[in-house]
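Retro notes, item 3 of 5
We never archived the inputs for the MGD complex last cycle. Fixing that now. Sequence and ligand:
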Amino acid sequence: MSNLDLSRRKTLKTFGALAIMPLIMQTNLFAKSKVSFSVIKDGEILTAAHWGMLKLTIKDGLIVKSEPYQKTSNIKNPLQLHTQDLVYAKDRIKFPYVRKSYLENPDSPKPELRGADEWVRVSYDEAIKLIAKELKKTIKISGNESIFAGSYGWKSPGNMQNARILLHRFMNQIGGFTGSLGDYSTGASQIIMPHVLGSIEVYEQQTSWPLVLEHADVVVIWGANPYSTLKIAWTVSDENGFKYLEELKNSGKKIIFIDPIRNETCKFLDAKWISPRPNTDVALMLGMMYELYTSKKYDQNFLDTYTTGFDKFLPYLLGKTDNVAKTPKWAAKITKIDEKTIKNLAHTLFDNKTMIMSGWGMQRAHHGEQPHWALVTLCAMLGQIGLAGRGFGFSYHYSNGGTPSAKAGILGGINSGTSNGGTGQSWLQKSTNSAFPVARIADALLNPGKTIDHNGSKITYPKIDFIYWVGGNPLVHHQDTNTNLKAWRKPRTVVVNEIYWTPTARMADIVMPVTTIYERDDISMLGDYANLGITPMKKAIEKVEESRNDYEIFSDLAKEFGEDTYKKYTQDKSDLDWIREFYESARSQAIKMDLENLNGVVMKPFDEFWAENKPIFFTQTQEGYDFVRYADFREDPILAPLGTPSGLIEIYSETIEKMNYDDCKAHPMWFEPIEWLGMKEKPAKFHLISTHPENRLHSQLNNTALRNSYSINNREPIWINTKDAKVLGIKTGDLVRVFNKRGQILAGALVSDDVISGVVRLSEGAWYDPFDPLNLNTLDKNGSANVLTIDMPTSKLANGNISHTCLVNIEKFTGKAPELSIFKEPKMQN
Ligand SMILES: Nc1nc2c(c(=O)[nH]1)N[C@H]1C(S)=C(S)[C@@H](COP(=O)(O)OP(=O)(O)OC[C@H]3O[C@@H](n4cnc5c(=O)[nH]c(N)nc54)[C@H](O)[C@@H]3O)O[C@H]1N2
Ligand SMILES: Nc1nc2c(c(=O)[nH]1)N[C@H]1C(S)=C(S)[C@@H](COP(=O)(O)OP(=O)(O)OC[C@H]3O[C@@H](n4cnc5c(=O)[nH]c(N)nc54)[C@H](O)[C@@H]3O)O[C@H]1N2
Ligand SMILES: [Mo]
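Structure as it came back at the time:
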């Protein structure tokens, strides 16, 4: 009998015991969950993370090995191999802690010492009581609006232990909170696309990959890096994107790659590399459109039938409104791509069956509303939208978009406890009454009462005096760290639930230690778009030290607000009760759809499913294989109109025209970004692109051994073009200081021809490690990109972040290399 079988038997036994336990004994939910089943001491167990399903090997109750559970392609995903490091990290928060000055006097807590003060260990009960007391105080003095709990971040997957929703659920029980709108990923596109296409576009299922592979002759990958970004998904990755990437590589199709960086995907696909200057894609697209128009290679019929406003855009394209014709020559000057290449590119796309796949990097830039709008306009001229395997797609690089969908039972999930609160990619749903655009956080903290424009409305920032953050790392993810640090000194109280001593946890007053996924029960869908399955995420090991699940922390906090609040929060359910409920709701859908007779998919009753500890795979449908985005619209734009005011693709938007913004007009336009290589008086020399890291999920996993595989001279690597490096006297392996007026970091130089001259690449997510935490403009020793980036909105329309718009200087670092401190415990009071 295998160890897996053994664990299953044990589980069944304890389930039985639970069933006959009198209700009265079950009132302490967490004592109950302790006996609900026992953890295996030795053997293998299935679990799952953003980076896919995992097979863990347990020895004497400890994780000793972590491997992929399934194989969908030959592409390796090293993120799957480091579970042990994550669980047994040196910088795990093992107990609740309070910052010394805060503990001494919460009413005058010396916020300027955040990040530098000593920590005092307190008991769990003491910490809960302190948080509750200070929350009540804040509510009494300045109201619930002064509590910011927008708490953006990638946390861990799982429909039960959803840190952010659990926080919202709690806050909604005690009178509400100020939340956030939108996200960092697609801040600009998710606001502009509904005006243009009537849909959010960036988080939608894509035309199926098999149809792309069958029908497209040319595939353009425009500012995307799927080879890296498909290593994770929002839920648990189904890992099918890799398979299609591999098929694309082997298809013999013409693959064109447009990016200032020859990234992992370009190399993997051995694609033709066209390398514009960063943030100039709109100019490139305009040049191409000009060429198509003047050579009469565009689909007038498509423009007439499916779009509105081309006639109002055309005078701009031809230069009749501003005396600047957007010719390929004009575009060449801005993009530094030669005129001939621009013309050829335009013709190639028109002459062939073309699919354009775009990532999101180029919309995370100043005027980030424009690139995807211009790209849709270009694709409208090409006239291939809605045809099998052709057109455009904005989510092939993310969460396995384009994997044919299955007919599936969909799991329920913990909700935020209001009628409009959601569970999914939750920042798209409203769960609070007061909110501002997520990337305006530092602006809001620093400027209470300020009114800003946002997508046709006005928003006034509240005065925030209490921050509660869970499952995110804003000191690393938000732009312009030094301004952000100033902002984080404003509120009286900051509470963070974290697994590790991240830069954000260090900026708190009260820190609550949290379990990893591997120390608690959960359940998740496999894949975000295709719904390919359901995976159990069973507790693999006992929790480390005094860490708790977020659910437990918020349940205990709710208790401090009264038995009634506690009951409403928990509904008297343990973690496992909720998980069972989420599963059963999926199961009843599966039964209703008769999946068993339809295609032999059986969803067993929960107890059996849970004991078996195996994923359920649903069957992909023919409909899923045949799915073509916008096919219905193309078939009949009257019967299947888009959700825009005109029902058509809006190249010109009267809605936006009425907003009368100076930084986003009624049709796509080229705007000069605030910092770029073509500007007249450059404040610094190199354009920094802070891509998403191949071997992390943002900041997650930076504290694992995986770091040894990519760090250079024990710092985050920065790619520098060979010619530029020569001028600077820099070699691979050198320590470099990267700086501008906003801040300075150390990084490890990687000299390469895979980045164009004038551009450098440094991935976001390295943990901010200040040399002197008391001094705001201090050197970051580890290389966090956001020390250098700009904190300003894309425009008044979307207020997205502009992390890929940033100029920096570089020099060889000749001083004594300071030791890193961020991956160790901070200063503790003896
Ligand atoms: N310069 C630059 N900056 C960027 C970007 C860029 O391209 N360039 N990209 C932006 C984008 S798109 C994003 S999405 C953000 C990402 O920013 P984040 O989502 O903030 O980044 P993560 O590192 O995933 O942070 C998640 C944190 O949650 C913690 N955590 C994990 N599980 C749990 C749990 O169960 N409970 C609790 N309480 N905590 C948990 C982890 O330890 C980790 O510290 O970064 C943005 N920042
Ligand atoms: N391994 C891994 N995968 C991830 C993540 C991670 O942290 N690690 N994060 C996930 C998340 S939350 C998100 S939002 C997505 C992000 O997905 P994306 O936003 O698509 O990823 P980025 O790396 O920011 O950018 C993709 C490409 O755009 C290019 N680019 C940047 N600026 C420009 C420009 O001006 N013009 C052109 N043509 N190209 C440009 C970059 O060089 C890069 O190659 O990835 C997800 N997947
Ligand atoms: Mo993101």
